[in-house]
């Protein structure tokens, strides 16, 4: 008889087929996982996932409140063991892509030969995966109960009891239910903001702990639905395939495992936190556990903490007080000497502790001891030890980091349920010191379903996604967005990025860009069929008629109101009043400053405007006619005002206010465009901040035209379905704040943005210009602030961000996008912004448009001047004109053949060669020189124009514009201009969350030095 058969016969039964194998016992101390509870032979722990905590751009008082809240929660856990685990998870690119794709509602069709939606989405994912960024995840295990002898016996007898008495196996966990519920409520409060870990969280924690140091997989196989329990045999899913080795006296351990059917080996070094001097958190220092986030490689943390009971602490503190008092008496009574200052400080601390003991230990004074370990990994031992040294240098000199022996046992400490490797490097302190580590502090801004803007560039690097319509559709908030920054801060680049990516995902945009660089987006192949560019200064007369730029309310927009008819009539009355106020402001702005500031001028204008009314079919010419009638009735000043307005009416650009009633409205037939860019290239605007009395006539007219163009831009949002995602972008909005109706426009867009599902972008050089609009600061949702150098402007920008002032953040705005000082190359580095997402997140971010699939977009948005782009000087340029404006003619020259269009292709010296016709086989030539109205302009001595020549040039320039408006003019040489250049955005850098001077109210962490 075989030995196996004799053994089975002694056991009383024969083995069934398949039962001949040896029983499985996990190689770790853990025996089962049930929901968020883990069991070992002697302990049950409940695991929680801590919410990310914002640290940047908060005041010291707010940070102290956070630390005290965490300390109070830890103080409630007296008599319990805690296991803190900090790990990382690769940014879930596939989850973001899936959410982004599902959120791209009504996206435009693909254009053959251009970048399609699938290619765009794939390019975004590939770029994100190449950045290798990850999210910090913090888990906290709390001891629920120690396990007695009966519990251990039930655990060992579980295979038998599970068949005989199934309820006995789970009786222990059922008895702990009330205690677990108490812990769930305790840690859910402000501070830890923790929730019970779910099954996927527990699986990730186990994988990252058992396979310590191995690369984090992009995605684990999801836990089957409904599975919340792992028995002892199921734990093999975490331990099988992972081996840990250590050579004697080696500074690292070697971890080998399988990832996607490939064997991967990493070396891991475990460090321990040693002596620590008194840290001043938050006045001077950042949370000491957050320091490791600055390293360019992932770092794992594991802390074993025991929160002591008051009765255990009282006796120890009394003995320490007795020692200090004895030493003081030894100096003062025995030797009649003053005690050392260090001893005096200890005596003061003794008095504080004595007071605490007298009044009773509170949660904030509860003591604890624990061990904090740090794990770093590398491909080989050399790389790992180098990274370990970087950690040591990072914390030096305030914190001493030790590299202990017995690395294998220290590495096992990271696994839930494993025993403590050694009591060496124990830290004793208060719960306040432990809370000052703020392990969950990280960069938290944006969402997980919107367009990718870039990445955070503070202590933590994380991708920044932002859905501009999340606030309106989900949070019922405003869609108002401010983009603030000085020249070259990257406002235009950021606006273009937002517009392009949201257009691809289905939004509709109308952009007013006076200088015109964003018009290049309309030429991109994937956007061109759905886009149009209109230069308002060359469009039909009357396109900026003040009466028509204010949209007429539509009845269907008020169907959800309690009384739709009444609401519609109220809005119609409001629109008529807005038109009257707008035409009053515009006509006042056209008058000379000395005339417009006279009280009687306002009276006669107001009377004429009221007579004309506020119907959308009116125009400013009717107001001038009314003034003439009033003058004939004896109102002499009305005639004076009418004369000045008639004079301004003769200006070429003023014709935009007075319609040609013989032409059709071009906007009525062009509502299918998804993207419209309105430009005003060549518009004269005053210097920002200059007083009204210093404006020239052309500058005053320019401000009024800009105001009207802004109203025309917002009109488009009322012509489309209110549920469609729409966007309006306005540049140069600092001038709107100087015009009363401009402030009304900003306020109206802010209030209607939620109702009409609009994201409104207002770009300005100074935050103060927007803050002057009543209620703007309270209505604004998201804010982007670029480089700002002026101190007053910095303080106003922080107010717009809702960030504390006078605590050190003002200077940070001047360090955004640092510019090279000794580099002759153009500064095309991506720009940095402070981004407030509208729901609490504020971080410094770097705008990113560096992916290869959007290189053509980056080139289109590059507004840096570059002379090398001009192949040969003297070639005329032709900009894209509005669909309703006549095509410009080439310079007068005898054509060899009939022409139907021209583009410059060759320039030889002063002769310009143009290839025209469908095949480009027809050539005309001519000479080029500086002309104004067809008359050569010759510089005087020294190559500069004197004052008389400049005056002549102004007159000729006005005549030239008149020629453009005259269909019979033969010499039409349009000029192309720009109001400024902006550089692309972003740059990576470090961020020290500013703080005030050190005070007495800060959290002291020096106790850990004992």
TrEMBL record:
Residues 885-897 have a biased composition (Pro residues). InterPro entries: P-loop_NTPase (IPR027417). Residues 1-23, 878-928, 953-1010 are annotated as: Disordered. Residues 985-995 have a biased composition (Low complexity). This is AAA domain-containing protein. It comes from the Bacteria. Pfam families: AAA_10 (PF12846).
